[in-house]
């Protein structure tokens, strides 16, 4: 059934995706994105980028699989299978799976910092591979369902969903049982890296309580590959290291660790809800039966999580969902920073109409400016005290966030707005050389280039429409993608 649009009272026109309207075609952009994913493929999984992120990252691989399914369904399945093969006995899916062929000094924190196979043995860390001990947003079931739908015959022949389903169920059970630290039905993140928006200003207040690690006790590798003005400060990084080391020293056992940083994040919980809906569809496909692990059980869990999300994190005054600091006050306190995480719940089916209307006004309003002052949704409030158009998650626009918002707009029937955002994402991906993130005002690429999820999600957006003339219009830009492909370096 076609969704009925929820009307907006203050809709604004979208600004053009990119000027001048000359240059690259959809076919060239598709080929360029394909080349990025081929170059970043390791034989079993895809690295986010060859320089800055030389291992497998959890939610990166989920987004990569969503794009890879348009090139090779078996390879997209392999992407998720490789990640899930590193799952811990308690169900957690680690945020990094380390490649043993990469030198320890190439990335920090490295395997010898996390020491998963020894420090995490009590929590069921695998012995055959080293991983980190924290997690990232649970978008994996949604990715698995989309990958299956791309080629159901191959998926069924390989037993893809049948093998992955129990692992995904265990993953969600870990989050809902071990990570409900607030006791109100929502998942808590215990490290700023877990919600994926690592350096968000929303973490500043809860992080201020953390004593940073001695700067002489570690060496940052990220500054070898990027500008210090784009990356977290040394002070914040020291706090990240302290939190991770303390969790490690408690054996990664959530019942034993004090978790001085514990935040209910709307993006994490929204993606869990979307993935519970996907698990319901997977359960139908595999014929799952059992208490709670059947289609009805997953739908019921999604409904309870949605109720808790609205009850705990919706803030009418802000016009969006806010993070909640579980360690502040009796019930925790809202963190009054407008982060893009508060817009991600647009991917949740069945939100109350009034909340959807308000969210859509917020997306296009002064704080996020989509269609008024910016082409892409920024990661943080344009008028916020900590806004920085260049620094990691403190303002720049990220392609996965915009892909999620585009999906939400389309889900709630706002196809014109979704089409405009889709066009802007494709144009920005092309013009920036598939950058990790971009300045929301100028579109200038920041961070790594040839970033895997940027290429993968561009492929997904290109493949979603049969209207190739619309594709050509969407990606017209002054950049020569053919030169990008031939040179082997984007940007």
UniProtKB/TrEMBL annotation:
InterPro entries: 6-hairpin_glycosidase_sf, 6hp_glycosidase-like_sf, Glycoside_hydrolase_63, MGH1-like_GH. The keyword Hydrolase applies. GO terms for biological process: oligosaccharide metabolic process; protein N-linked glycosylation. It comes from the Bacteria. Pfam families: MGH1-like_GH. Keywords: Glycosidase, Hydrolase. Residues 53-454 form the Mannosylglycerate hydrolase MGH1-like glycoside hydrolase domain. GO terms for molecular function: Glc3Man9GlcNAc2 oligosaccharide glucosidase activity. Belongs to the glycosyl hydrolase 63 family. This is Mannosylglycerate hydrolase MGH1-like glycoside hydrolase domain-containing protein. It comes from Streptomyces radiopugnans.
């Amino acid at each position: 059934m076609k969704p009925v649009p929820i009307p907006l009272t203050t809709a604004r026109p979208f600004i053009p995706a990119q000027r001048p309207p000359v240059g690259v075609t959809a076919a060239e952009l598709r080929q360029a994105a394909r080349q990025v994913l081929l170059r970043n493929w390791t034989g079993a999984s895809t690295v986010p980028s060859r320089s800055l992120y030389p291992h497998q990252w959890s939610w990166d691989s989920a987004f990569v699989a969503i794009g890879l399914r348009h090139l090779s369904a078996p390879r997209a399945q392999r992407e998720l299978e490789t990640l899930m093969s590193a799952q811990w006995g308690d169900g957690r899916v680690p945020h990094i799976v380390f490649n043993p062929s990469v030198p320890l000094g190439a990335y920090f924190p490295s395997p010898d910092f996390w020491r998963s196979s020894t420090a995490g043995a009590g929590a069921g860390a695998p012995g055959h591979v080293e991983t980190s001990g924290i997690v990232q947003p649970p978008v994996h079931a949604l990715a698995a369902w989309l990958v299956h739908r791309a080629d159901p015959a191959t998926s069924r022949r390989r037993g893809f969903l049948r093998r992955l389903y129990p692992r995904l169920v265990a993953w969600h059970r870990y989050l809902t049982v071990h990570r409900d630290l607030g006791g109100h039905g929502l998942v808590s993140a215990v490290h700023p890296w877990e919600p994926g928006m690592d350096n968000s200003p929303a973490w500043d207040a809860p992080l201020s309580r953390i004593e940073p690690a001695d700067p002489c006790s570690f060496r940052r590798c990220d500054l070898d590959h990027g500008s210090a003005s784009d990356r977290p400060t040394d002070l914040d990084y020291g706090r990240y290291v302290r939190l991770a080391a303390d969790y490690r020293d408690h054996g990664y056992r959530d019942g034993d660790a004090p978790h001085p940083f514990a935040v209910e994040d709307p993006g994490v919980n929204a993606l869990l809800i979307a993935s519970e809906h996907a698990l319901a569809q997977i359960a139908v496909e595999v014929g799952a039966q059992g208490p709670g692990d059947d289609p009805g059980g997953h739908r019921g869990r999604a409904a309870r999580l949605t109720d808790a999300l609205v009850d705990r994190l919706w803030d009418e005054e802000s016009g969006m969902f806010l993070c909640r600091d579980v360690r502040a006050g009796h019930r925790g306190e809202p963190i009054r920073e407008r982060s893009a995480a508060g817009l991600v719940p647009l991917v949740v089916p069945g939100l109350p109409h009034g909340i959807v209307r308000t969210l859509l006004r917020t997306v296009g309003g002064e704080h996020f400016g989509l269609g008024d002052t910016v082409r892409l949704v920024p990661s943080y409030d344009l008028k916020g005290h900590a806004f920085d158009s260049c620094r990691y998650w403190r303002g720049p626009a990220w392609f996965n966030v915009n892909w999620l918002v585009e999906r939400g707009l389309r889900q709630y029937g706002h196809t014109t707005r979704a089409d405009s955002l889709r066009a802007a994402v494709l144009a920005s991906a092309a013009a920036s050389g598939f950058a990790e993130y971009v300045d929301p005002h100028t579109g200038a690429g920041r961070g790594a280039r040839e970033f895997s999820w940027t290429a993968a999600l561009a492929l997904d957006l290109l493949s979603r429409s049969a209207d190739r003339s619309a594709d050509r219009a969407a990606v017209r830009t002054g950049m020569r993608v053919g030169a990008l492909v031939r040179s082997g370096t984007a940007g």
